[in-house]
Amino acid sequence: MHRRRFLSLAAGLAVAGGCGRVGGTGAPVMNRLTIVAPAARGQGWDQAARALAAVLVAEGLARMVEVSNYPGGLGSAALGAFVTARGPFVREGRLLLTGMPMVAGAEIANAASVVKSTTPLARLVGDWAVLAVPVKSRLRSFEDFAAVLRRNPAGLVVGGRLEGGSDHVLYGMIGKCLGVDARLLDYAAYSGWPEAFEAVHDGRVAALLGSARSFMPEIAAGRLRPLVVSSAERIEGIDAPTLMELDVRLEYTDWCGVLGPRGMSREDRDAAVALCDRIDGSPRWRALCAANGWNRVYLSGDDFRQWLTTETGRTRGVLGELGLLSATATSYRHKLLG
């Protein structure tokens, strides 16, 4: 296989609790906190938003936490609703749950990047991906898949979630690593996994690429055969090698993190990052991550901002090669790069 390196990582609910301050953590007690989630209730990372709310109250880090849902548009609806906060963060703060789809959505819309329109605080968890085919597929291994893709990039239809979302971008990354022209890749987007599973089983798509934890039941039931996973190490319960094992230098997770409003004061930003640090260190949070199959990929503060800046550029590059950026956006990017 070609050796290329392409690393990437990859309605409302109100929860009320008692007062108090957690000593020695550096995280102040919030009076009221709103978490804006870019997904409908029960979908996407909404469950993570509600887990965050429960942990914040249980740990005594916030007296009341509300989750506000703004689904739609690769996170654009949530980003648009996330206006600059008023007053001190510790009195009435707002956090925006984010991830790769929101980063991609801003780039596709030729809007201000997520990193520039908010204050990056922390990357929390991620979900590894798996490439899988029906058990009767003639593609017995990832090597078979790669060989067909190199010979005829448009000959395989791969299904996943929204166009321009995490699965689509990962497919573009895999294509790049294999030396395939990403513009020729054929990708079918589905609103949910039930529709995608139906499509792969009736032959409308040759393979599915997406959430490892969502594929587990289909794999365990013997309906899907995993070909490869995007994690650094093999995933328990999925009998498939990693991309890295197969000399495809790519590690990727569909990550989830939190952002603060643009223009936060240094004091408010430090308080918000301390809050994230406290969450990641919470046994309650870690137990919820384990129970839900979320992989902790924690990174906070300036390290997260730097990573997000790099990841935004990498994502934009793949979106351009997939043909998902407008001519205006592409021309503007070339102008900026000189």
Description:
With 338 residues, the protein is α/β, with parallel strands linked by helices. The chain has two domains: 12-126 and 254-331, Bordetella uptake gene, domain 1 (D-Maltodextrin-Binding Protein, domain 2, 3-Layer(aba) Sandwich), CATH 3.40.190.150; 128-246, Periplasmic binding protein-like II (D-Maltodextrin-Binding Protein, domain 2, 3-Layer(aba) Sandwich), CATH 3.40.190.10. 38% of the residues lie in helices and 24% in strands. The protein has helices at 46-58, 76-81, 100-108, 114-117, 142-151, 166-177, 193-201, 212-220, 266-281, 283-292, 301-321, 327-337, and strands at residues 12-16, 30-37, 62-69, 92-99, 118-134, 157-160, 186-189, 207-211, 224-229, 253-261, 295-300. Strand 2, helix 1 (46-58) and strand 3 (62-69) form a beta-alpha-beta unit. It is globular.
In brief:
By secondary structure, this protein is α/β, with parallel strands linked by helices.
Keywords:
alpha/beta, 2 domains, disordered C terminus, 38% helix, D-Maltodextrin-Binding Protein, domain 2, 12 helices, eleven-stranded mixed beta sheet, 338 residues
